[in-house]
Design brief:
single chain, mainly alpha, 0% strand
């Protein structure tokens, strides 16, 4: 018999969180000091400096914010437990639909339109804010239907969940107004300001969230905190914009402008809505179709936190690749096709080993995040759903290629087909197979989306050589998984080291990375990184 003593009272967990937040605050202070030392306000704004200020800095701070939220999740998941964590995840997913409907694609439109005519910034800010408030009223109607519709299922939403959804919706209305102000900072090439403000309010959200949990307010308290933090964000950004930008007016309602914004915003809202439903509808169905839906969603959401953390990889890659592909299309569609195919191959080369290693590390990963209460189910869900990233990351690249080819009008159709498949498959199998069905359906839905994307791409370019693209990366991954499985029998999770060593050796032995792949990597990775990777030269 083995007896293990574990000391992990609430005070110990809180102390760990406060220590981590102390380190985060110090790091943020160092970042701000370094930024002020390097970037001088009166320095000439070259193209390189502008990119660093308005792209690299916000991206880095966004990643920093995700890290803060992840650390906080390690605390609140342990306090809430699977059932309440599932209710909180359900409230966030449901309110996320409202956020998209209420914003109506205006975030991008404000930046795009005001960039063309800065003198109209006041008019756009006022009228899009009014439009957001009006859209929020109309968006409340489908939300009422969504909540009421749960009564048709065996496990309808509870009163605390409905209250939490309401609180988050109110917070999102305020957040929407903040996004309008944030757009002005992007227009005036001061994107680092709202990014830094968001970091500060994210840290405040952790503080308020801890207070809410210590007061016994549970996930409803966490939802209410979003109202307070979003009000603070709006106040800080509003005052900063008023002091820094010329906003003389006219401050008057412009109905023709609002009608134009509705017309232009609808396609953007629709594609965003379909993309969100595509990734979140399983939470709604798990919650309402299963008698223990709250707990199941809690397990499932613990897996998804790791899954979502990895999305920074395709996000960075596609943003770097999009202008390159767009230029290639102007020169030659065939050249763009070759670059697209090599880009997909690189996505596979990144996603496959990550999925394999995560599969073997799933149990400790979920244990670190949420504690033993989320085991084994959270780990099992992660082991399955992580295998959607090889296909999902291909879709991330393909999505941008469709835009570059001028086929963005096909995107809503593609996502509508994938969403339809997702809903039908989950509705058929969730009752019998619970979160396993949802995880497998996530993989299959990505496959359906890829097939539809491929169909539309063939309208503008030749089909891809999938054999050349995927066979050798898959072969190396199979060998890697086999070696890791053998190692797991001896060293347990330490087998990840075997995988990390075996994979690059396999790539070298099978000559998977050629000159074309090196060219793509040189074009997308930062120069400082490519200089240190000698094999890319």
């Amino acid at each position: 018999w083995t007896v293990r003593f574990r000391y992990s009272p609430a005070s110990f967990q809180l102390g760990g969180l406060l220590s981590a937040m102390g380190v985060i605050v110090l790091l943020f202070g160092l970042v701000v000091w370094g930024w002020q030392a390097i970037v001088k306000p009166d320095a000439a704004m070259t193209t390189t400096r502008s990119i660093a200020k308005n792209s690299a800095a916000p991206m880095a701070l966004n990643l920093f914010n995700k890290g803060i939220e992840f650390v906080f999740a390690m605390y609140y998941l342990r306090v809430l437990g699977p059932a309440d964590a599932g209710s909180f995840a359900t409230a966030i997913a449901a309110a996320g639909i409202f956020d998209i409907l209420a914003n109506f694609g205006l975030d991008i439109l404000v930046i795009r339109e005001v960039s063309k005519a800065r003198e109209q910034a006041s008019s756009y800010l006022l009228n899009t804010t009014i439009l957001r408030l009006g859209a929020a009223v109309f968006a409340s109607l489908p939300m009422l239907a969504l909540v009421a519709g749960t009564n048709l299922f065996s496990n309808p939403f509870t009163r605390p969940e409905i209250v939490a959804i309401g609180f988050i919706m109110i917070g999102m209305v305020i957040s929407g107004m903040s996004k309008g102000v944030t757009g002005l900072f992007y227009v005036y090439e001061k994107a680092e300001t709202p990014a830094a403000v968001t970091t500060v309010t994210t840290m405040m959200k952790v503080g308020f969230g801890v207070a809410a949990l210590l007061l016994g307010m549970g996930f409803v308290g966490l939802a209410a905190v979003s109202i307070l933090t979003n009000l603070i964000t709006l106040g800080i950004l509003g005052m900063s914009a008023w002091r820094n930008f010329a906003l003389p007016g006219p401050w008057q309602v412009d109905w023709p402008l609002q009608r134009r914004m509705v017309r232009l915003g609808f396609p953007l809202m629709l594609i965003h809505l379909l993309q969100t439903v595509f990734i979140s509808v399983d939470v709604y169905l798990l919650r309402t179709m299963l008698p223990n839906g709250e707990e199941v969603v809690g397990w499932y959401s613990s897996a998804y936190k790791w899954f979502n953390a990895l999305q920074i990889v395709p996000s960075y890659f596609t943003l770097a690749l999009f202008p390159i592909i767009s230029r290639e299309i102007e020169r030659s569609v065939e050249a763009a096709r070759r670059m697209y195919q090599m880009s997909l191959k690189i996505m596979l080369l990144l996603a496959l080993p990550i999925a394999a290693i995560t599969t073997f590390l799933a149990y400790p990963l979920v244990a670190v995040l949420g504690g033993s209460e989320f085991l084994p189910h959270g780990a099992i869900a992660l082991q399955i759903v992580i295998w959607s990233i090889p296909i999902g990351w291909l879709n991330s690249v393909t999505n941008y290629v469709l835009i570059a080819l001028g086929l963005e009008r096909m995107q809503p159709r593609a996502f509508a087909i994938a969403v339809g498949f997702n809903i039908i498959a989950n509705a058929l199998f969730i009752r019998a197979y619970s979160y396993v069905a949802a995880s497998v359906t996530t993989i299959l839905s990505e496959v359906v989306l890829l097939l539809v994307f491929e169909y539309y791409l063939r309208k503008r370019m030749r089909g891809l050589d999938w054999g050349r693209l995927a066979v050798r990366p898959l072969l190396v991954t199979v060998i890697m998984v086999g070696l890791m499985w053998l190692g797991y029998q001896v060293v347990g999770v330490g087998t990840a080291v075997i995988g990390i060593i075996a994979y690059p050796i396999g790539l070298w032995l099978f000559r998977v990375i050629g000159d074309d792949e090196k060219q793509i990597l040189r074009a997308t990775l930062p120069t400082a990184v490519t200089r240190r990777l000698r094999f890319l030269s």
